[in-house]
């Protein structure tokens, strides 16, 4: 999901000047000296009697570290890392253990992988209210943080750090493929070449079907396909991922015109570097869009951003891509827009009811009907690379090390909720 150096931001792609999705720019990622004394020495309290001091306790929820073994070795020297068993991570067991103070006054919660550690369900008031006042930081894999009440964590004085920075390049790369798909109808092209051979049938029928689908796609896909160059790429959200998409598809590469809407306008230098035009409303952005890409965090109120109303702002034939959160899209409304032709094609990596995919969208991804393969559907794969998971591990550990060492968190998302003091 080649092992690069242990940096949460892959060095292979030029990174535009940007800020993580947080209340302030992230400071440089702290580095470890070979003997770890530079980073960790202040965490070791001196003691005149030479009795070894107690180490801060970090609760590790989820799978063990797989990649950044050197960093984890230093992490384990400084902290007492307690990895919860699968049973201890189940909600009822976790609640009981927190009530009993099983792990004492621990200082941090560490979830290095998105695919494990979610057994306890959402971190809401029921869990957060049981955390001891000693907890200062919750560092987790993944870009999204709708699974944890970051407001309540902040009000309790706990900094929540995500790892979106580590996934930004992988998600942006995947988005490029999905955007191109909406212009070139890749599901149709791929399906017509392969599906006849995957369905059980006689050799004679398979050959006839394969010839028909291949020749039809070869002859007709041209009339529905377009080059991305010169089209307006409308980015809904312009954080790290949005800016990387702009860099990959903008004037220096695919020649698309970059437009964006974000709750916070980016500095003029960022806009100039990426050739990006800011729109101060979603309506204004969608009205000029040839391909709209949703790359913004999940809403705190749980309400969709893409609805019948907002889709109505589009000009007919616009394309739509979602690599953000499935909950942000009213999928019935999107299916209606696709059927009416308001949206000509779409690509969705995330879905409202995962792992189930909306049945109307599934049908539109098939080869039946007058507009075959109009929708590209994937399985929440955008951020899923080995390099991303290496970054998740590293960035989560470094966030905890920084906060417990009295330094600034690297990728905080809830500083604005912390008590003013």
UniProtKB/TrEMBL annotation:
Region (Disordered): 1-36
Gene3D superfamilies linked to this entry: NAD(P)-binding Rossmann-like Domain
The keyword Oxidoreductase appears for this protein: yes
Pfam families: 2-Hacid_dh, 2-Hacid_dh_C
Domain D-isomer specific 2-hydroxyacid dehydrogenase catalytic span(s) in chain numbering: 123-414
Coiled-coil region list: none
Keywords: Oxidoreductase
Occurrences of domain D-isomer specific 2-hydroxyacid dehydrogenase NAD-binding (ranges): 218-364
Biased composition (Low complexity): 15-24
Keyword Transferase: no
CC per GO annotation: cytosol
InterPro entries: D-isomer_2-hydroxyacid_DH, D-isomer_2_OHA_DH_cat_dom, D-isomer_DH_CS, D-isomer_DH_NAD-bd, NAD(P)-bd_dom_sf
GO MF entries: glyoxylate reductase (NADPH) activity; hydroxypyruvate reductase [NAD(P)H] activity; NAD binding
Sequence similarity: Belongs to the D-isomer specific 2-hydroxyacid dehydrogenase family.
Classification via PANTHER family: 2-HYDROXYACID DEHYDROGENASE-RELATED, D-ISOMER SPECIFIC 2-HYDROXYACID DEHYDROGENASE NAD-BINDING DOMAIN-CONTAINING PROTEIN-RELATED
Protein name: D-mandelate dehydrogenase
Organism from which the protein derives: Immersiella caudata
């Amino acid at each position: 999901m080649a092992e690069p150096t242990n940096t949460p931001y892959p060095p292979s792609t030029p990174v535009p000047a940007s800020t993580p999705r947080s209340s302030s720019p992230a400071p440089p990622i702290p580095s470890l000296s070979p003997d770890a004394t530079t980073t960790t020495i202040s965490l070791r309290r001196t003691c005149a009697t030479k009795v070894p001091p107690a180490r801060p306790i970090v609760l590790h929820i989820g799978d063990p570290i797989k990649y950044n073994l050197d960093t984890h070795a230093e992490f384990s020297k400084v902290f007492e890392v307690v990895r919860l068993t699968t049973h201890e991570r189940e909600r009822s067991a976790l609640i009981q253990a927190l009530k009993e103070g099983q792990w004492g006054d621990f200082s941090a919660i560490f979830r290095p992988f998105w695919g494990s550690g979610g057994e306890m369900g959402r971190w809401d008031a029921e869990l957060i209210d049981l955390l001891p006042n000693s907890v200062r930081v919750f560092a987790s894999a993944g870009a999204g943080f709708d699974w944890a009440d970051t407001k309540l964590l902040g009000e309790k004085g706990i900094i929540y750090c995500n790892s979106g920075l580590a996934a930004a390049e992988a998600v942006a790369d995947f988005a490029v493929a999905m955007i191109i798909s909406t212009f070139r109808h890749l599901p149709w092209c791929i399906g017509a070449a392969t599906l006849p051979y995957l369905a059980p049938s006689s050799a004679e029928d398979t050959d006839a079907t394969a010839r028909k689908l291949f020749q039809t796609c070869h002859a007709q896909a041209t009339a529905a396909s377009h080059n991305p160059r010169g089209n307006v790429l409308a980015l809904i959200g312009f954080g790290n991922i949005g800016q990387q998409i702009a860099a990959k598809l903008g004037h220096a590469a695919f020649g698309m015109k970059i437009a964006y809407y974000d709750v916070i306008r980016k500095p003029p230098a960022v806009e100039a570097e990426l050739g990006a035009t800011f729109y101060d409303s979603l309506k204004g952005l969608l009205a000029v869009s040839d391909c709209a890409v949703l790359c913004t965090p999940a809403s705190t109120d749980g309400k969709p951003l893409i609805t019948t109303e907002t889709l109505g702002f589009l000009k007919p034939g616009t394309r739509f891509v979602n690599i953000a959160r499935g909950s942000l899209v009213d999928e019935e409304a999107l299916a209606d827009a696709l059927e009416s032709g308001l949206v000509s094609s779409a690509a969705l990596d995330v879905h409202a009811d995962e792992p189930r995919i909306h049945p109307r969208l599934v049908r539109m991804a098939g080869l039946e009907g007058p507009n075959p393969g109009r929708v590209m559907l994937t399985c929440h794969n955008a951020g899923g690379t080995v390099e991303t998971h290496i970054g998740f591990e590293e960035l989560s550990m470094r966030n905890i090390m920084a906060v417990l060492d009295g330094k600034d968190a690297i990728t905080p998302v809830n500083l604005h909720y912390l008590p003013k003091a």
